[in-house]
Amino acid sequence: MTKRALISVSDKNGILEFAKELVALGYEVLSTGGTKKLLQDNNVAVTAVDEVTKFPEILDGRVKTLNPLIHGGLLGKFDEPSHQAQMKEHGIEPIEIVCVNLYPFVETISKPDVTWDDAIENIDIGGPTMLRSAAKNHDYVTVIVDSNDYAKVLEELKAGGATTIETRRTLAAKVFRHTAAYDSYISNHLTEAIGEEFPESLTMTYELKQNLRYGENPHQKAAFYQKRLGSDFSIAYATQLHGKELSYNNIQDANAALQIVKEFEMPAAVAVKHMNPCGVGTGTNIEEAFNKAYEADATSIFGGIIALNMEVDVATATKLSEIFLEIIIAPSFTAEALEILTKKKNIRLMTIDFSQDKQDKFNVVSVEGGLLVQEPDRYGFAEADVKVVTDRKPTEEEWNALKLGWAVVKHVKSNAIVVTDAQMTLGVGAGQMNRVGAAKIAFEQAGEKAKGAALASDAFFPMSDSVEAAAAAGITAIIQPGGSIKDQDSIDMANEFGITMVFTGVRHFKH
Q1: Where are the beta strands (DSSP E) in 162-231?
Q2: Which residues pair with 100 in a beta bridge?
Q3: Given 77, 83, 227, 274, the catalytic residue
Q4: Does the CA dihedral 186-191-194-195 come out positive or negative?
Q5: Are 405 and 479 contacting, i.e. CB atoms less than 8 angstroms apart?
Q6: Is 83 a known active-site residue?
Q7: Is 71 a catalytic residue?
Q8: Contact, 267 vs 309, CB < 8 A?
Q9: For 10-21, what is each residue's pLDDT tens digit?
Q10: pTM, entire model
């Protein structure tokens, strides 16, 4: 029985060497299109698929391998008498090795000017069909979709004349993952193109970026996957310049810091611990912004994650180097700044292209047995229906403080209270079971700095006690969504203490 291998790949990496080795091992190589031409041009013996099928490629190449003489050879059981009899009757010869990868659909839809027709024409039909046929029949057929597996297959063929069942099962599983991912890219692109927001089924594909040392705790295994077509302005697409690998918690915190610093156009610095901001500062330059973030909570910033939205210069790098930090994220670092910071062996330095505006359409959170999918909370101060509801209107300084607080509070775990002045956070109360408790934490952290400061709340005040506590701390301006049936009680309490209060009409719960 002639040993046969079918090769048809869009990724030509390593394929010449692989095909030559197969021919040397006695295989007849079948091929189509560009792969066949490449092999012929390089003097590799090859048989055209249409010579086997006795039927030409038709419909601009849409139909090439969809033929019983190919799929019978892929799906027939080599040791099943009835299969062998039928194959002999119809002149079907078995195919032992299939090496196929698919039309570059993802690369096509990644182009900014891709059209509907371009996308459709790059949907592979014959390739996935051959792969699935060969993978189903993996007891007999070795199927390869990844050029990284060529060496393993050749090693086993040379050693024993055939691949092992363990290898064939491993490769078959990879094929089904590959075709499932391919189909998910197609379905998601078409679904988004027609404007369907929440389809009846949702299939998402993430690619392994790295295995992690452990998860939230050392006894938990973990890995980091990224969306191939996800947001470029994200931790998944950051470039690490220095330091040890990121951990699970590092990635969570780094993502939180990045989402906050995205809120600002002016120079800004954000310090995060356990996915909550411990300090946010703004300034006329990045050094001043970092100074404010550090001043906001010089204790909690220790061991934290810092995100900055401007290039890190020497002055800023010098100050960053003076404290223990896990990660520093920025658009770039000057050469001199890198020289200073890379003296610290373990600190992770990461760059992200802040000019990118591509963002994920949805946030996805896993729960046991399911997923929660929602639009990201991109509702900012500019979109809010801002109303001054008290007798006194905010001063310009208070407006700036209120805007800063509103930008930060939506990134703080609920119940959330943030105290700020016009340039920095002064106190952050996060993740409390009641709003007064969150306020007390924020006031305690702010201390005397709360006098004359602004307060931002992620949700409305159901009771006037929060306003009373704010007044006792010295707060002079409050921003909150409003919408409680007891809003007037809070407004009256604010008027009594001369506090200016602004309603936005939108809450910012974060769970």
Answers
A1: 207-212, 222-226
A2: 8
A3: 274
A4: negative
A5: yes
A6: no
A7: no
A8: yes
A9: 889 899 999 999
A10: 0.83
